[in-house]
Amino acid sequence: MSPRDDDALSWAGDDDPTLVSAPAADETAVPRRAKADPSALTTTPRSAPAPSPADSEPARTSSGADADGGMSSAALVSLGVLGGIYLLYTIGWIIGGLRLNGIAGFIVAPTAFVPAVIVAVAAPAIWFGVVFLLTRERPSWQRFAWLAAGAVLLVPWPFVMLGTGL
Questions:
Q1: Residue 115 lies in a domain
Q2: What does the alpha-carbon distance between residue 96 and residue 117 come to, in Å, rounded to a whole number?
Q3: Does residue 94 sit within a domain?
Q4: What pTM does this model have?
Q5: 63 lies in a domain?
Q6: pLDDT tens-place string over residues 87-146
Q7: Where is the composition biased (Low complexity) (predicted)?
Q8: Residue 134 structural domain
Q9: Is 55 inside any structural domain?
Q10: Contacts 24+ apart (CB under 8 A), 80-84
């Protein structure tokens, strides 16, 4: 190789004496297995130590995204898009609830209408949080299935049917 080709394989400052490199692998850190002596083998089993209370609890294993160290980029983008949809649904429920305020007085009492609108406004955020919390240890497809179901169920119908009225 020419010196010009070697330049592509190095980085400026690689030979810096202040550069901290990883310590060399210590061969004594990993013990080597000694050859087993056949005369040392016994036929009587050793008694196992009594399990501690911490050992009796099943270990929590994570599956899906957490086992690999995080969610994929596509999953994060999809989660952001669904989060944006839920935010728009919250805004839609606010606008739709305010739009129905004059009409609802003829149908139900304000003491029933106001709490219903508050719950309707909070429902998309609650759904998103509960799904995210309850599907932590489940496969990613279940999380997205529940979020998609919420996107269908929580559509702000007053906003869709009546519009903004502008």
A1: yes
A2: 9
A3: yes
A4: 0.54
A5: no
A6: 999 998 898 888 887 777 788 888 888 898 899 999 999 999 999 999 988 998 999 999
A7: 38-56
A8: 83-162
A9: no
A10: 82/128, 82/144, 82/147, 82/148, 82/151, 83/128
